[in-house]
Design brief:
Elements (H helix, E strand, L loop, with lengths): L2 E4 L5 H10 L3 E5 L3 H11 L2 E2 L11 E4 L4 H11 L8 E4 L5 H12 L4 E4 L2 E2 L1 H7 L2 E6 L2 H12 L2 E8 L3 H29 L4 H9 L6 H11 L9 H17 L5 H15 L11 H5 L2
Parallel strand pairs: 1-2, 1-4, 2-3, 4-5, 5-6, 8-9
Antiparallel strand pairs: 7-8
Helix pairs in contact: 3-4, 7-9, 7-10, 7-11, 8-9, 10-11
């Protein structure tokens, strides 16, 4: 199997490296050509100059930022990939975008799997991502060797769009956890509790969670180098807002997180990690 990878950011680059380790990676591409050139040189694979350079791939994985980026890549790949090949999209986009992408590719006999991931940059670096996939079973089965390169769990959630719907649920939970952890730790600071004792105590009980474990200490030190940028969280939450509106359900946790991350982005924290939310909870 020959696989290509487009989108070599904080998540995509380590995922591509795991594909290379499995002997599957043929070509890499990125909007910033220098980034593709550097990774291609490191891994001794092809640096794509255009989508034509993916024409011999059986599977092409995408990990890009926006709905428009997904559709731009899908439209170009639809013109060059062979019938029977599959595009798997790890981006977080709307259900409608996933369905549009699938329809565009299906017209050319090309499969599509919407497969957003969870696990953060750490999960990508460790090859331990959770993949939530939507699409036809045959397409999911074809891309499984690719997904297995960097996933600890692969769940086929249903038809096209089901992966993105699952990611929407995931992001509601993530947003709520972020809110609770940042409020709790801000309270702990006000009460003068020692972080070196507080954090392991919380992690040992029912309050333990991924965000507290991976971001608790760094946020208390005032370190907000991005694992997941606040601007990307806001983008995801707006997608969830549209999905919730269509489902006719009010999500108060979502509303709070939307307001908070809009505030953070508006005040110049869009490139900071989502844990920068503690600044709001401190009142700073």
């Amino acid at each position: 199997m020959k696989a290509g990878f487009i989108g070599l950011g904080a998540m995509g680059a380590p995922m591509a490296r795991y594909l290379h380790a499995r002997g599957l990676l043929t070509a890499v591409g990125n909007r910033t050509q220098a980034k593709a050139d550097a990774l291609a040189a490191e891994l001794e694979v092809r640096a794509a100059r255009s989508h034509d350079n993916f024409a011999d791939c059986d599977v092409v994985a995408l990990c890009v930022s926006l709905d428009a980026d997904v559709l731009e890549n899908v439209n170009a790949l639809a013109q060059v990939l062979r019938p029977g090949s599959v595009v798997v999209d790890h981006s977080t986009v709307s259900v409608q975008t996933a369905r549009r992408a699938a329809a565009t590719l299906q017209a050319q006999g090309i499969g599509f799997v919407d497969a957003p991931v969870s696990g953060g940059v750490e999960g990508a670096r460790n090859g331990k991502l959770s993949v939530m996939a939507g699409g036809e079973e045959a397409s999911v089965d074809k891309v499984r060797p690719v997904l297995e390169a960097y996933a600890s769990r692969i769940s086929h959630m249903g038809a096209t769009g089901a992966g993105q719907a699952t990611k929407a649920v995931n992001q509601v939970l993530v947003a709520g956890i972020n809110e609770a952890v940042c409020e709790g730790l801000a309270l702990g600071e006000k009460l003068g509790l020692d972080p070196e004792r507080l954090l392991p105590t919380l992690m040992a009980g029912a309050a333990g969670n991924w965000f507290l474990d991976k971001r608790g200490a760094s946020m208390l030190r005032g370190e907000f180098a991005p694992g997941f940028k606040s601007a990307h969280m806001l983008k995801d939450l707006r997608i969830v807002q549209d999905i919730a509106r269509e489902a006719a359900i009010r999500l108060q946790t979502l509303e709070l997180a939307l307001a908070d991350y809009t505030n953070l982005v508006d005040h110049g924290h869009g490139d900071s990690d989502t844990s920068v939310l503690i600044k709001l909870k401190r009142g700073s």
